[in-house]
TrEMBL record:
GO terms for biological process: one-carbon metabolic process; S-adenosylmethionine biosynthetic process. Keywords: NADP, One-carbon metabolism. Heterotrimer; composed of a catalytic MAT2A homodimer that binds one regulatory MAT2B chain. Heterohexamer; composed of a central, catalytic MAT2A homotetramer flanked on either side by a regulatory MAT2B chain. NADP binding increases the affinity for MAT2A. Residues 27-50, 63-73 have a biased composition (Low complexity). Residues 1-91 are annotated as: Disordered. This is Methionine adenosyltransferase 2 subunit beta. Coiled coil: none annotated. Pathway: Amino-acid biosynthesis; S-adenosyl-L-methionine biosynthesis; S-adenosyl-L-methionine from L-methionine: step 1/1. The keyword NADP applies. Belongs to the dTDP-4-dehydrorhamnose reductase family. MAT2B subfamily. One of its GO terms (molecular function) is enzyme binding. Pfam families: RmlD_sub_bind. Residues 98-390 form the RmlD-like substrate binding domain.
């Protein structure tokens, strides 16, 4: 497993040991997990962190042996570690809390990775087609690869963002979508349980039929489309395989995108910008556009709360609180950039093409709010920040000068 391009904290490039000792001495409330059952290294580890009771919640004292890729991924266990990088020894500060993020190359996963990484977590991200060079390449359908990375890194927390989340793609490729959204999630939950990791499974408001909003966590789901059904089956599968799981349901997302098509919100930008052409916009489905940075902050707050309180588990809802149709979002985008909106046409009929969508699946977020968890960026500010690199004027400048 040492061949993967893992994100090593500076100066912790691995040697060549294949094994690692069982996870031990991890402080309450997170359980100590099993060992990987693979070959163990027997010599004292150059990368073994020195004890630092304050670095792990609960203040456990840790001693470890082993070098290599697994150790390098885990060097955060006790905070400050002396590591070997080539011929030079150097001290590095590595956070003691470890988080693994699946789907770290995706819209939400990138924000989640950044949020944990910038807040004193030892963070490893996994991707698939876009993994290299920043992230670990792990196909979640490959059980051995999943087992290896979890047992090598021994995360305290796993945020599972990877999924097939495009309803029309799920309708077209139901088996592939089910493998990723359900079977791979179940396997991940099992592996997370094996090392005592707290799993956050990202789910969707599309588990509800949208007929009686707002929805509490206790309301009975009734997904209208196959995407919602696979995500709901994924929820059940992770909870069955790992009691120490949180399911976090969220609505339509926007944020910093690599391409406008990455988000159902940002994809409207060119129709807004090219005002010489009229554009039909859905004015039937009620949405609550939510900034990925806010969801990422909620995931981190949830993880940190859980490290202090083992009762944090089960289902939670998070959402922005500005209700808008796509037409209203497009008008708000125009407003945020001082662009005209008179070419945008509201369509009030329910859509006749594509997968069925719930009319209004508003999520009640009071359970997380009562825990003191939450963050909401106003839509106009968040969308401006996300879309300004895609302004036609800006793109023109980039073409000319770069
Ligand atoms: N986007 C929304 O509006 C929205 C709304 C509600 C809920 N959600 C939920 O939020 C989560 C994140 O969505 P997103 O919009 O960030 O999705 P996304 O941008 O489409 O990203 C999907 C991620 O899954 C990874 N992936 C795909 N197949 C994989 C495989 N076989 N093995 C490992 N990784 C694989 C992709 O990796 P590569 O790209 O590297 O292949 C990518 O990182 C999902 O659970 C989704 O259901 C999203």
């Amino acid at each position: 497993s040492g061949s993967r391009g893992v994100l090593y904290p500076h100066g912790t490039a691995p040697g060549r040991c294949a094994g690692s000792p069982p996870r031990s001495g991890v402080a309450a409330p997170l359980r100590a997990g099993r060992g990987s059952g693979r070959a163990r290294c027997s010599r004292p580890c150059a990368a073994a962190p020195r004890t630092d009771p304050s670095a792990v919640p609960g203040g456990s004292v840790l001693t470890r042996r082993c070098t290599g890729a697994a150790a390098a991924r885990r060097t955060g266990r006790a905070g400050r570690g002396r590591t070997t990088s080539g011929n030079t020894n150097e001290d590095v500060d590595i956070p003691s809390r470890r988080v693994l993020i699946t789907g770290a190359t995706g819209l939400l996963g990138r924000a989640v990775f950044k949020e944990f990484n910038e807040n004193n977590w030892n963070t490893v991200g996994c991707g698939y087609r876009r993994a290299q060079p920043r992230f670990e390449h792990v196909n979640l359908l490959d059980c051995i690869a999943v087992h290896d990375i979890i047992h090598d890194f021994q995360p305290h927390v796993i945020v599972h963002c990877a999924a097939e989340r495009r309803p029309d793609v799920v309708e077209g490729q139901p088996d592939a979508a089910s493998q990723l959204n359900v079977a791979a999630s179940a396997n991940l939950a099992k592996e997370a349980a094996g090392v005592g990791a707290f799993l956050i499974y990202i789910s969707t408001d599309y588990v509800f039929d949208g007929t009686s909003p707002p929805y509490k966590e206790t309301d009975v789901p009734n997904p209208l489309n196959l995407y919602g059904k696979t995500k709901l089956e994924g929820e059940k599968a992770v909870l069955e395989n790992n009691e120490e799981t949180a399911v976090l349901r969220i609505p339509v997302l926007y944020g910093e995108v690599e391409r406008l098509e990455e988000s159902a919100v940002t994809v409207m930008f060119d129709k807004v910008q090219f005002s010489n052409k009229s554009a039909n916009m859905d004015h039937w489905q009620q949405r609550f556009p939510t900034n990925v940075k806010d969801v990422a902050a909620v995931c981190r707050q949830l993880a940190e709360k859980r490290m202090l309180d083992p009762s944090i588990k089960g289902t939670f809802h998070w959402s922005g609180n500005e209700q808008m149709t796509k037409y209203e979002m497009a008008c708000a985008i125009a407003d945020a950039f001082n662009l005209p909106s008179s070419h945008l046409r509201p369509i009030t009929d329910s859509p006749v093409v594509g997968a069925l969508r719930p009319k209004n699946a508003q999520l009640d977020c009071s359970k997380l709010e009562m825990l003191g968890i939450g963050q909401r960026t106003p839509f106009r500010a968040g969308i401006r920040e996300s879309l300004w690199p895609f302004l036609v004027d800006k793109r023109w400048r980039q073409t000319v000068f770069h």
